[in-house]
Write a structure and sequence with these properties.
GO terms for molecular function: 2 iron, 2 sulfur cluster binding; metal ion binding; oxidoreductase activity. By secondary structure, this protein is α/β, with parallel strands linked by helices. It has four domains: about 20-100 and about 235-365, FAD/NAD(P)-binding domain, CATH 3.50.50; about 115-235 and about 370-430, FAD/NAD(P)-binding domain (3-Layer(bba) Sandwich), CATH 3.50.50; about 450-605, no CATH class; about 615-680. About 20% of the residues lie in helices and about 25% in strands. It is built from 15 helices and 37 strands. Strands 9, 10, 11, 12, 13, 14 and 25 form a seven-stranded mixed sheet that branches. A hairpin with a 4-residue loop joins strand 32 (about 560-575) and strand 33 (about 580-585). Helix 2 runs parallel beside helix 9 (about 395-415), helix 5 (about 250-260) packs parallel to helix 6 (about 275-285) and helix 14 (about 630-640) packs across helix 15 (about 665-675). The protein is globular. The model is unreliable at about 520-530 and about 705-715 (pLDDT under 50).
């Protein structure tokens, strides 16, 4: 079983009940209630179906209930395995071709209309949705929040790292998994707020109603006065030969497997994209004991926070700029990825191709807002506002304030006379800021007293180190007058408590001080002049520390270059931050350069020289659901002078189970290759229902099969 048993941050859930189920007739084990897809991957099964058009293998891709690539036959019904909870004795089968509807021999026995009424309906229980619910609940509105996942918190429930931002404003220095619980508890303190989980919204209707596929079993109609769309974002797809193989997966889907379900899904991965999502995914992989061969970035600079990138480099993960993936290869799943450097036109450079032996490729190419419900509501004249990523792609810290301001805007639209704190929008904009300038830090000469050394050199919104210092010795250098300013050591007093080291989200602070070396102590005892001084350095460590004192580790500088190998002389766990502080004795000349500890060896990023493969983009599937290639789409656009994306439905592009959510991000490439500006093309018409559900669910047909009419009420608000 590929399970994570000893995670440095997450606790293995002892309360989970192991059950048996069947996959293609074979009995295997899983945990009750976990997604079927996660149980299968934990058992080493990655192929979930074979496409009806060409028999191509398909597997988990988004783990978010949106792409439908994980559809399988579950108890005889085609269902998304990433959203279907596992139950005892469940019969799961690989889907070959198109599923057949089961025979329906029983007449309709029962149909039930279920509906509720609320003042404000919020779509999404992520940081923005929960923050909006808290503010609206505080004002006395009846609020119903619906989220498609089993736990509130959105992507926060996948984040084991400490957050940037301000400690006072958005819990900076606290891990995302903990912030999720804090925000949920704050919302639930208001009795007028109800949060429904496992409750995907399937449609918004003209008469100010919304449909919820509650518990993926029954249909609930919600009548509301106003709407907050805080549905977050979906990961952008990336088109390259082999991108449709099982094992090519969204970075967020990978985090779902590793951090939510504690599944050690892969052995060795390659990450495409150096935004914060890709950088953090590398960190999460290392914590799960998964090797990271590298991060590939087509641009000439890192897209995420430099402090994140430096942290990952220090851990032993190289970041290759001006590079791109050319192809993923494998029979039924990923076995190899071919990468090359690119020139200023984005074309691969001869002689630079290299092959990585990996079993997964993570796509971290950015995010697209899930704003379909907002557009739908506005077309119908429904009072609606957006919050969080549905309004602007930014960090979760910004989304919290986006939710607060959206709630105030909506209350004002509803006629409530309120005074909005003007600092909220200012704070939100600061938290959403892109990185600013970078500065060189002056070298630190270790003295006899402790002194913090800062390895954050780029302006980003972050200040927890300044707020936790018990003696106020860390200040922000006044350049912007806000938390974009860089921290520095003020004065000459440091207690060496390590609070700043433990709280730093970028693991970018160390403590140093000069100590007498062994020769110096001997010389001092004999009356000779002291010499041979050494230095102590304290470093953060967010991995398992089950090694003995005296174990030697590789110490590296800010960018990950080797400095010195030194033994651990002490280790202390700061329980409030769930972070270890490791102390080393090092050469005094190295002390202020040492920024971190290498986690994986250099050979982890080994590769073989390769040939640049022939350009197979035209023959590569662009629409995954219907297996339509890029070349087929380009030819159709040229031959038919297509100026409306809906015309592509003649090829069945966008007609598949994902509802066009994946290929809609990619068809612009086809129009450009056909010589048409995508901006001049009429966008696709949205489907009436956002996601598929059984027809019988729309009338709650067959609730008697669950044990009578009352059984259908489980999960009702």
């Amino acid at each position: 079983m590929n399970r994570i048993e000893n995670h440095p941050i997450l606790q293995s859930r002892k309360d989970r009940r192991q059950i048996r189920f069947y996959f293609d007739g074979d009995e295997i084990a899983g945990f009750e209630g976990e997604p079927v897809a996660s149980a299968l991957i934990a058992s080493g099964h990655h192929v979930f179906s074979h496409h009806h058009k060409d028999g191509a293998p398909q597997g988990l891709f988004c783990a978010n209930g949106q792409c439908s690539q994980c559809t399988m036959l579950i108890d005889g019904i085609p269902k998304k395995s990433c959203m279907t909870p596992l139950s005892e004795g469940m019969d799961v089968r690989t889907l070959y071709g198109l599923p057949h509807l089961p025979a329906e021999d029983e007449p309709l026995v029962q149909a039930e209309r279920r509906s509720v009424r609320t003042d404000i309906f919020i779509i999404g229980a992520g940081p923005a949705g929960l923050a909006a619910a808290t503010e609206l609940g505080r004002m006395g509105y009846q609020v119903l929040v619906a989220d498609d996942k089993a736990q509130a918190g959105g992507k926060l429930v996948l984040q084991t790292h400490k957050f940037f931002g301000s400690e006072a404003d958005c819990y900076a220095g606290t891990r995302g998994i903990d912030i999720a619980h804090i925000l949920e508890d704050e919302a639930k303190r208001h009795p007028s707020v109800t949060i429904l989980t496992n409750a995907p919204v399937v449609g918004i209707y003209k008469d100010r109603k919304a449909g919820i596929y509650l518990n993926y079993e029954s249909y609930l109609l919600v009548e509301f006065t106003a709407l907050v769309v805080a549905a977050g974002a979906r990961e952008k797809a990336l088109h390259f030969p082999g991108w449709d193989l099982p094992g090519v997966i969204g970075a967020g889907a990978f985090q779902t497997l590793v951090n939510r379900d504690l599944v050690k899904a892969y052995r060795k991965i390659l990450i495409i994209g150096s935004g914060n999502v890709g950088l953090i995914a590398a960190y999460h992989a290392l914590q799960a004991g998964i090797t990271v061969a590298g991060i590939i970035e087509v641009a000439g600079r890192v897209n995420g926070y430099q402090v994140h990138a430096d942290k990952i480099r220090r851990m032993g993960v190289p970041i290759s700029l001006n590079s791109t993936i050319l192809k993923a290869e494998g029979r039924d799943k990923v076995e190899r990825a071919i990468v090359a450097a690119v020139d200023e036109k984005g074309q691969p450079v001869a002689g630079t191709a290299r092959a990585y032996e990996v079993d997964a490729v993570l796509i971290a190419a950015g995010l697209s807002p899930c704003n379909e419900f907002l557009e739908q509501a506005r077309r119908y004249g429904i009072m609606a506002v957006a919050a969080g990523d549905a309004a602007e792609i930014a960090e979760a810290s910004s989304a919290m304030y986006g939710g607060k301001t959206a709630a105030m805007d909506l209350a004002s639209m509803l006629g409530k006379k309120i005074i909005v704190n003007p600092e909220w929008e200012t704070t939100r904009k600061v938290l959403a800021s892109r990185p600013g300038d970078s500065y060189e830090r002056s070298p630190v000469v270790p003295g006899s007293e402790w002194r913090p050394v800062f390895f954050c050199s780029e302006e980003i919104p972050c200040n927890p180190c300044a707020t936790v210092c018990p003696v106020g010795a860390i200040q922000l250098r006044p350049m912007h007058g806000n938390i974009m300013d860089l921290p520095y050591f003020e004065g000459n007093r440091c207690t060496g408590c390590g609070s700043c080291v433990a709280v730093c989200p970028g693991l970018a602070i160390t403590l140093v001080r000069r100590i007498p070396g062994e020769k110096a102590l001997a010389d001092k005892a004999s009356g000779d002049k002291a010499s041979g001084d050494r230095a102590q350095v304290v470093l953060p460590w967010e991995f398992n520390a089950d090694f003995d004192i005296g174990t030697e580790l590789d110490l590296v500088d800010q960018k990950g270059d080797f400095v010195e190998r030194a033994p651990v002389v002490s280790k202390r766990r700061v329980s409030s931050r769930n972070t270890w502080l490791l102390t080393f004795h090092v050469d005094i000349a190295h002390a202020s350069k040492i920024a971190g500890i290498r986690v994986q060896p250099q050979e982890a990023s080994a590769f073989q020289s390769a040939e640049i493969p022939a350009d197979g983009a035209a023959d590569t599937v662009l629409c995954r659901c219907e297996r339509v290639t890029l070349g087929e789409i380009v030819e159709f656009i040229r031959n038919n002078k297509v100026r409306d994306i809906n015309q592509l439905k003649s090829l069945r592009v966008g007609m598949g189970a994902c509802g066009g959510k994946t290929c809609s991000q990619l068809v612009g490439k086809a129009f450009r290759l056909a010589g048409t500006d995508p901006a001049e093309v009429e966008p696709a018409t949205q489907r009436p229902l956002f996601m598929e559900m059984p027809m019988g669910a729309a009338v709650n047909e067959g609730l008697h099969k669950l044990g009578g009419k009352e059984a259908g009420a489980r999960g009702a608000p």
